Amino acid sequence: MGKDKRYFFNYKTLSFEAARVSSFRKFVKGASLFVASLAAAAVYFYAYVSVVGETPKQAVLRHSNVVLSSKLDVMNSRLDIYEERLGVLEERDNIVYRSIFGMEEISSDIREAGYGGVDRYSSLRAMGGRPGILERTMSRIDRLNKKAYVQSLSFDDVYKVSRRAGDMASCIPAIPPITTDPEITRYSSSFGYRSDPGNKQIRMHSGVDLAAPTGTPIHATGDGTVCRIGFDYYGYGHYVMIDHGFGYKTRYGHMSKIIVTNGQEIKRGQYIGDVGNTGRSFGSHVHYEVIYRDRCVNPMSYFDLDMPPEDYAAMVGD
């Protein structure tokens, strides 16, 4: 008898006959097999997740994260190199290029300035992965872009100034502000610490004093632009300041008369006013300052009072 059929003995016919299986029983049998298969699959899946700890989809995502993290590590290594090279350019720019042309250094505050006001990387934090790696990488890229932009602007400025390098010789304050005739001019006070003529206290004297009669002509000591005209009752009195470019400025104090105006272009030797005794002054003289990169320096390093008076007169056109 076949294994796939059931038989029973029919007492009426006195013979074995094949048993008929109802459709319902067939359905129940098939459904039972299907449910058993699902149960077996569920048990297998549970056992796999319990042992391995992740689903196949999670495994694919984990692998993708590993690949992405590796790429970000490589990118950060390259950013280290770019950051180092940019740092060398910044240092060379401040110490060499800008120094040669008397330009002010760009402060680290400007070079490192951030964007501020907006959390630019909040969306990256929600992406997961290694804690903060996307945020740090994008922050470094943005910071390098900003620093590179600042450096590019600096090179543009240096280039513009370098094209004027031929003018530098005429802009540097290189002559005395008044005549060198010893019968008119007397070197009355030097640059540096001295006993103040008013209160006898030791104070820094930021320029030199050249005594001369009131009305003695004062001349610009280099090409430039008048950047300030003012009056300081307790200090300089009537004064003129000229911006010569290349980091240089000069100031002429205690004047009795001023004939130039703010913004006026000035040539070396040009008459700008007269010696006086205005402000905190104890005798007719011109207080003369040379300011280089916002710091007062000794004016005597830039001119020679022993210049023959006739040479000075020829230079200023008197």
Brief write-up:
The protein has 3 domains: about 45 residues; about 90 residues; about 150 residues, Distorted Sandwich (Glucose Permease (Domain IIA)), CATH 2.70.70. The chain contains 7 helices and 14 strands.
Mean pLDDT across residues: 83
CATH C-level label of the largest domain: Mainly Beta
End-to-end gap: 143 Å
Helix-strand pattern, N to C? EEHHHHHHEEEEEEEEEEEEH
Say how many strands there are: 14
Overall body shape: rod-shaped
Could you please describe the fold and organization of this structure?
With 318 residues, the chain is of the alpha+beta class. It has 3 domains: 7-52; 70-163; 170-316, Glucose Permease (Domain IIA) (Distorted Sandwich). The chain contains 7 helices and 14 strands. The strands form 3 sheets. Strands 3, 6, 7, 8, 9, 10, 11, 12, 13 and 14 form a 10-stranded antiparallel sheet that branches. Strands 1-2 form a two-stranded antiparallel sheet. It has a two-stranded antiparallel sheet with strand order 4-5. Helix 2 packs parallel to helix 5 (133-162). The protein is rod-shaped, with a radius of gyration of 45 Å. The N and C termini lie far apart (143 Å).
